[in-house]
Amino acid sequence: MSEDLIYEVRDGIGVLTFNRPESRNAMTFAMYEGLRRICAEMPTDGSVKALVVRGAGGKAFAAGTDMSQFRAFETEEDAWRYEETTDTVLTAVERCPVPTVAAITGACTGGGAGIAAACDIRVATPSLKFGFPIARTLGNCLSVANLARLAALMGAGRVKEMLLTARLIEAAEAQAMGLVSEVVDDADARGMELARTLAGHAPLTMRATKEGLRRLTTANRPDDRDLIAMCYMSRDFREGMEAFLGKRRPGWTGT
Question: Is 3.90.226.10 the CATH number for 5-188?
Answer without folding.
Answer: yes
